[in-house]
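Handout, section 4.2: multi-component inputs.
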Amino acid sequence: MYSKQVLEHFKNPKNRGKLVHPDAFGQVGNPVCGDIMKLYINISKDKKDIVKSKIKEIKFETLGCGAAIACSSVVTQIAKGKTLEFGINLDKKFVLKELGGLPEAKVHCSMLSIEALQKAINNYLQKFNDKNNKKESKNNSSKKSSSKKNSIRSKTKK
Amino acid sequence: MKINKIYFDNAATTKVDKNVLKSMMPYFSNSFGNSSSIHSYGQKAEGSVLKSRDIIAKFLNCRSNEVIFTSGATEANNTVLKGVFFDFKGHLITSAFEHPCVLETAKYLQKNGVEVDFVRPEKNGIIDSKKVLSLIKDNTRLVSIMYANNEIGTIQPIGHIGKKIRELNQNRQNKVFFHTDAVQATQFLQMNVERLYVDFLSMSSHKIYGPKGMGAFYVRKETRLKPLFHGGHHEYGLRAGTLNVPGIIGFSRAIELIASEEHKKDILNIQKIRDYVVKEVLKIDGTILNGDRELRIPNNANFLFKNVEGESLLLKLDMKGIAISTGSACASGSLSPSHVLLSMGIKPESAHGSMRISLGKYNTIDEAKYFVKELKKIVKELRKYSPLK
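Output:
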């Protein structure tokens, strides 16, 4: 039923656990459907272009089936060291390929883990924007950053 | 003691007993005749089938021509339900936690015009016979209630319901027939059809150390059931198709074995191991036993673990060489967890964390000890990495 890669990730998950002081996190799923994933990230910030910031550390906690755990593991493995932009645009096909495919009924697990990552990234960007907004209202300056803010929004929407 | 592989999933299927296999072997390449043929080959096969039919009839306390061989319990249950409602008219009463081969057939009949009531079990996984009887009305033609539930092992009051229906029938022109799917009960419980007051009863061979692809049902002569398969004059016109002679021989041998004194000892041993597992597993925090503690077949235990997902538990145990089963949605290929657990009022979020163990005569107490030890470690590990605490 499961590929070798899925079973290997299930057996020896990468990045499992939690970050004590995460910069951001994302939680998806609900107990009724059976899968819950929580993904924690620490970011090394790119001051010039926030979406070029890198995911320095990433960890997950998952209550779910074999596929859910394997997907969480592989998504964190892929995302570690990559930019926020990369994470936001991560495609399901890429994850499935890394896992050597998933049974039809389990494909939604891969979506769920990508959603968890994107939620964590959005959570980080939201915090960043909130901070900037505060600064803006204080200094009442910097057209640049507001235009940057919009570009992030448009990217994170998808 | 070194343990390699542990099979705790005997409600799914059982290992074929060596004696059963031995009994079947001559009927593949030596006595391979078609039991319908008139020549000596056919006669030999027919003679053996007759003997097998007698063994099963004796086991059920019925006439030999009331035993119909099928490809398994799914076919047996389909034949009974569709055979009674071949014209898609009337009313069927069944339970909400039947095996899918009854449940889905009932839904199919419902789609085609049969009125169906699905009786929900009580919280302990037992059907209240009063609820069943109160639903009987003028156009009721069949009541179908399983004998022992396949997931939680709870025993249903079949004899009691059957007796009450028989009483009701005395004052009715259109009789209500009573069917039970006895697949999980066959090797443990009373199978005398006269004491159960049933008109139909389904059995499967591969759950009792017999071969797969083999089953049978009892049909009371007076029921005038319609067949599902049409063709040759096999099985008293109720099931056309060349008889699976080796399967029939193996099945009847398996029945002989479960009716033996030896098997009574096996059952006591199975129960002892099961009780040990229940006692030890319930020591794990956040664990519940599903289904009535006493009114369950002796080989079954079904648990809920809080904040553990069943399929990952199954996979982890499998990596330790232990085979169990789960009612989690993730293991079923559908999106909702066990219909059995839900029918008992268990919430979906809890039902995902279910585990069934079903023991067999080849299991040992040492296996149970190893299982408990590994289970405790795995539950702890899975909970450690769950976002819910």
